[in-house]
Amino acid sequence: MSAKVLMYATAVCPYCVRAEGLLRRKGVTEIEKVRIDLDAERRDEMMARTGRRTVPQIYIGDYHVGGCDDLFALDHAGKLDPLLQGQGA
After folding, report:
1. Between the N and C ends of the chain, which has fewer C-beta atoms within 10 Å?
2. pTM of the prediction?
3. pLDDT the model gives residue 69
4. Are 36 and 43 in contact (CB under 8 A)?
5. Within a domain: residue 30?
6. Domain assignment of residue 60, yes or no
7. 3-class DSSP state for residue 75?
8. Domain range enclosing 16
């Protein structure tokens, strides 16, 4: 079973598009996208959960990956695939 992926994003964020592209190439078919540009309460939720103001903010399961660069670094370190398979970081 694959881990649930949640991504806080906006409509015009190139980093969100890039992060989603990597996740799709890794076989992720479902990404729960939370559009913080459309919902101020969800933006506040993201900032409270992550301590960050920038998008994307990505969760795989309960693990806060961080942003796009963090996602790519996790992949480069060989830790993204196990995380997506629900095996932890």
Report:
1. N
2. 0.93
3. 98
4. yes
5. yes
6. yes
7. helix
8. 5-84
Q: CB-based contacts of 87: which residues, under 8 Å, 6+ apart?
A: none
Query: Does a structural domain hold residue 89?
Result: no
Cβ within 8 Å of residue 54, ≥6 positions away: 67
How far is it, in rounded angstroms, from Cα 10 to Cα 63? 21
CATH number of the domain enclosing 40: 3.40.30.10
86 band by pLDDT with thresholds 50, 70 and 90: confident
- CA 24 and chain centroid, separation: 12
Q: Which residue has the tokens 């540009």?
A: 37
Pair 16, 68: CB distance under 8 Å: yes
* List of residues 6+ apart from 22 with CB closer than 8 A: 71, 72, 75
CA–CA separation, 88 and 25 (whole Å): 19
